[in-house]
Amino acid sequence: MRYLLDTHTAIWLFTDSNRLSVKARNILADRECHLAVSIASAWELAIKISKGGEVPDLSGVAVFLDKLHETGVEILSITADEVKIVETLPFIHKDPFDRVIVATAKANGLTLISVDENVRKYDIDWVW
User: In the chain, what are the domains?
Assistant: First the structure.
């Protein structure tokens, strides 16, 4: 199976958070699963940190990106396909990063791992 991690899912993976669901934890531990993150997640994290937000155990976006590389999580670029999908998505999320992440899941046929129940309202596969 192929999965896209929402920003918080990736952060919680790297900070060994107990906030991950059992199902999410099992998927993330399964070496047969292909895991990916949109570069939008790193961008979202960079903006949050630059505004003074704190992310436990992640001192910056460079650490986040290093952890992605170390664990073999694929980093997906934002393509024209995602941009076209964002334009047609129902306006459920106002946050542009959430919309790009949903579009990335849709464009790449990935199941999104996210605690955000609003993503269920989109036409994508979702687990938590």
Answer: 2-127 (3.40.50.1010)
In this structure, are residues 112 and 3 in contact, taking their beta carbons and an 8 Å threshold? yes
Q: Kind and range of the H or E element at 4?
A: strand 2-5
Contacts of 82 (CB under 8 A, 6+ apart): 100, 103, 104, 107
67-124 residue pLDDT tens: 999 999 999 999 999 999 999 999 998 899 999 999 999 999 999 999 998 988 999 9
What's the helix, strand, coil split of the chain in %, to 5? 50, 15, 35
Asked if residues 99 and 86 have their Cβ atoms less than 8 Å apart, the reply is: yes
Please give the model's pTM, rounded to 2 decimal places.
0.94
